[in-house]
Amino acid sequence: MLFDLFLPQRVLFGPGSTYRLGEEAGRFGTRVLLVSGRRSLKETGNFERVAAPLTAAKLEVAFYDRVDPEPSLQTVSALREYAREKKCDVMIAAGGGSVLDAAKAAAGLFFEEGEVKDYFYGREITQKNLPWIAVPTTAGTGSEATTNAVLIDEEDRKKQSLRHPHWLPDVAVVDPVLTMSQSKQLTAWAGLDALTHAIEAHTCRFINPLSNAVSTEAVRLIVQNIYTAYTVSRNRDARERMMQGSFLAGMAIQNAGVGAVHAMAHAIGVRYNKPHGLVCGTLLPMIMAFNLPLVEDKYGALGIAAGVVPAGTEISIAAEKFVHYVQRLVERLGLPSRISELGVAEGDIEALIETITPAGSLKTNPRRVTHKEMEELLRELL
Ligand SMILES: [Fe+2]
Q1: pTM of the prediction?
Q2: Mean pLDDT of 99-110
Q3: Ligand 1 center to 27 CA (angstroms)
Q4: 262 C-alpha vs ligand 1 centroid, how far in Å?
Q5: Residues 27 and 159 reside in one and the same domain
Q6: How many domains does the structure of the chain reveal?
């Protein structure tokens, strides 16, 4: 077995860890750029939690609050420009995956001369990145543990990852308190993105002992806590465990990979402008059922590890029960079971397949998906 590992450099986990941001940011200089989405950081009260330690540490703080959901190349260019104008020493990204990914790419390309689009389409990255600190406010993408930024080229309507091995955050401050005010809907969508990461990383073609261990634990944490976090928003234990799960799932995808759900979710998400977690959650049960014959042992073991199937259950039965459990869970979290509810129409299938087929994550899926099978899958899912 051959594998490379990419591990976060420094992670501060736990309720209240945000208080340490001033001290952490101060290690990189005195000028900080705090990056967020347009509204949510202020609406949830998290703005104070993140900004107060910075001002208490007497840092010079500039703010950029114009990152849109599902960030585009344009978003990254504008943020990079602003960070250069402010001559910042460190960028702090406080938000969901969109904010983290936009800041990761802007910090990563801070010293590069070319346009963001050039690097999106393969130009070599040669400069080191501006230091950046990840402060996730959702338990979802795990972007704080990965080297890639998922971006959209709005001109070509293409969604893919831009990545570099050095792009892990210099520090990740993972504070579950920041997720306490997440809406029910966002809790479900982000949480199902994380569950998809954990399951796809556990079953993809490039697994290793580390990804196996962390993805198993991530599945257990998410399966056991997602519904409580969804129904009882201020349950601290559930929020904390969801945050652990999404972080570990991020580590798992970084060191293993994803699969067909992500290949399809990127294509569907960009075409119909739907949030990533919603699309992943909708697709997950169907793709699990499709992959089942090849990964029965793994699904069975995950079902037992997550406590949804009694230990000692025959592995093929355990696997089927686990797939069924995930299907019911997605329903209980209020997601649709059909992709037509996301806007997919029969006439779009061929164009969707064209976008899905070249995706790298389709190649890491445990079961090969032919053109005909993809067509059948999409039709079945309508
Ligand atoms: Fe994802």
Answers
A1: 0.96
A2: 98
A3: 31
A4: 6
A5: yes
A6: 2
